[in-house]
Amino acid sequence: MVSALLSYPLSWLRSKHQLALEVLALRHQIIVLQRQTHKPKLRPGDRFFWIMVKRCWPGWRTALMILQPETVIGWQRAGFRIFWRWKSRRRSRRPGKGPELIDLIGRMWAVNPTWGSPCIRDELAELGLQASTATIRKYRPKSRRRPSQSWRTFLQNHAGAIAAIDFFLVPTVTFRLLYVLVVMAIHDSQRVRR
User: Fold this and answer.
1) Backbone torsions φ then ψ of 185, nearest 5 degrees
2) pLDDT for 108-152, tens place per residue?
3) How many CB atoms lie within 10 A of CB 113?
4) Which terminus of the chain has fewer Cβ atoms in its 10 Å neighbourhood, N or C?
């Protein structure tokens, strides 16, 4: 096989490049057949050889005698799968959080059910503990529905800041239009601001 591979660069000097590749492919198959008496068994080097021949020679299918073309294509696809599985492997895992931190996240969530993950993260940072919002979401207790304020509580808490705004036109006797903007604090004193 080594002599066949070394004779290939010399075939570039000849004008019959396609013929030299075909001879090389046929010689390789003869070498494989001579190794086995019954069914020929291909080694990984043989598979690599045929994948390389497929890449550099468009007429590689015509020289196949002991293999099907789909077999060579399957080897190439399997090589791509192995490569991409290796490329996308997990390089290192994040260190796990201690049980004390997990318990603290659960207690903070139970005591303050309206807090979100960023609030808990900031409170933990004030205590000198580091945890991302993704970590807090992972370890907080799962609940079906997060309790929130009712509208009555919301209105009571923000009564001084809520205002009603209205804009309208007033036609006069002389057919002029007056533009009126009314801003009124609703729950605080119900008086017109401007």
Assistant:
1) -75, 120
2) 888 887 888 899 999 999 988 888 888 888 888 776 555 567 888
3) 11
4) C
